[in-house]
């Protein structure tokens, strides 16, 4: 019984660590996306359009 409880606790701990890692990666991806420089070939909104 004690071994089963220990296995369950280790599994729960592993799931929590996995979720924390995934959350950190998601936040890093968000920051990377938000701080990426604008590509040189991008045209700002409203520039070069004929629908004024």
Provide keyphrases for this structure.
1 helix, single chain, mainly alpha, 52 residues
Structural notes for this entry:
This protein is 65% helix and 0% strand. With 52 residues, the chain is mainly alpha-helical. The relative contact order is 0.07.
Number of strands: 0
Rg of Cα set:
23 Å
The amount of helix comes to 55-70%
Task: Provide the succession of SSEs.
Answer: H
- The gross shape turns out to be rod-shaped
How many helical elements?
Answer: 1
Mean pLDDT: 85
Straight-line distance between termini: 74 Å
Structural class: mainly alpha
Residue ranges: pLDDT <50 for 5 or more in a row? none
SSE topology sketch:
Blueprint: H1 2-35
Summarize the structure.
The chain is mainly alpha-helical and about 50 residues long.
């Amino acid at each position: 019984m004690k071994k089963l409880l220990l296995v369950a606790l280790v599994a729960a701990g592993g799931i929590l660590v996995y979720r924390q890692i995934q959350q950190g990666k998601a936040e890093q991806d968000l920051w990377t996306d938000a701080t990426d420089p604008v590509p040189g070939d991008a045209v700002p909104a409203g520039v070069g359009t004929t629908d004024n």
